[in-house]
Automatic annotation (TrEMBL):
Domain of life: Bacteria
Documented EC number(s): 2.3.1.-
Protein keywords: Acyltransferase, Transferase
Protein name: GNAT family N-acetyltransferase
InterPro entries, A to Z: Acyl_CoA_acyltransferase
One term of GO molecular function: acyltransferase activity
Gene3D superfamilies per record: 3.40.630.30
Keyword Transferase (UniProt): yes
Coiled coil region boundaries: none
Length: 234
């Protein structure tokens, strides 16, 4: 399979029949990773296609390859390129980078002054984002739109997110700010120089968060058990 055999373009009304395939693959991929993305219905994905706020990748034969869509938050001040998914047989082919570039350009076209952000647990996606001009940031620099954070409810780590007051979780936050003077070549070079550090920090953060959350759960169970014991022993 060659990249030239794959078409990456803005999705339209003729692509809505792929919506169920896309959402099924999103769910399967999230389960395999042990993390999650906002769960979307086929109807929601089809709506994004009809609005011209989605990018789809297809083989010349019409076989579905990959997908990503745009969501706006805080009245258009923030934009997220969400739901990036690639069909299993096309992963590690470079198509994810092509999709991310296309949806990023579409976002800049539709929302030229918006900050574009994303949450990811994958170093490969971090690299792609860095090549586009994204930089790692704290969660406080992202949108405070309640609807966006409600989308994390379908993730297995949602309890950790809420326990940390939405200030930290397993994902790394990344942001492209059009007002920032950093060039994509600079953010890409920074990521290349520090990629091993980012990977080590990400693993350490995830390990510490899991230990902290598990310990908190055990303390909560112990406290509940003591309360029950007290009730039945008086």
């Amino acid at each position: 399979m060659e990249q030239q055999d794959i078409i990456v373009r803005v999705a339209n009304h003729l692509d809505t029949h792929y919506a169920l395939r896309i959402t099924d693959e999103m769910e399967a991929s999230a389960k395999a990773r042990g993390t999650g993305i906002a769960k979307r219905s086929p109807e929601y994905i089809a709506k994004k296609m009809l609005e011209g706020k989605a990018v789809i990748a297809l083989m010349n034969s019409g076989q579905w390859v990959g997908f990503c869509y745009i969501e706006e938050w805080s009245h258009g001040k923030f934009v997220a390129n969400s739901g990036l998914i690639v069909s299993p047989e096309f992963r590690k082919s470079g198509v994810a980078k092509l999709i991310k570039k296309k949806v990023f350009d579409l976002s800049r076209e539709k929302y030229p002054s918006a900050k574009i952000f994303g949450l990811t647990t994958g170093l490969a996606v971090m690299k792609i984002n860095s090549d586009l001009g994204y930089e790692p940031v704290t969660y406080s620099e992202l949108t405070d739109d309640e609807e966006f954070w409600a989308g994390c409810k379908s993730c297995v780590n949602y309890d950790i997110l809420m326990s940390k007051g939405r200030k930290n979780c397993m994902c790394t936050a990344m942001l492209f700010d059009p007002a920032d003077k950093a060039e994509p070549k600079e953010t890409a070079a920074d990521f290349k120089e520090n990629s091993s550090l980012y990977e080590r920090f990400s693993r350490l953060k995830q390990s510490k968060l899991l230990r902290w959350f598990n310990k908190k759960n055990e303390q909560s169970k112990d406290s509940k058990a003591k309360s029950i014991f007290k009730i039945f022993s008086t």
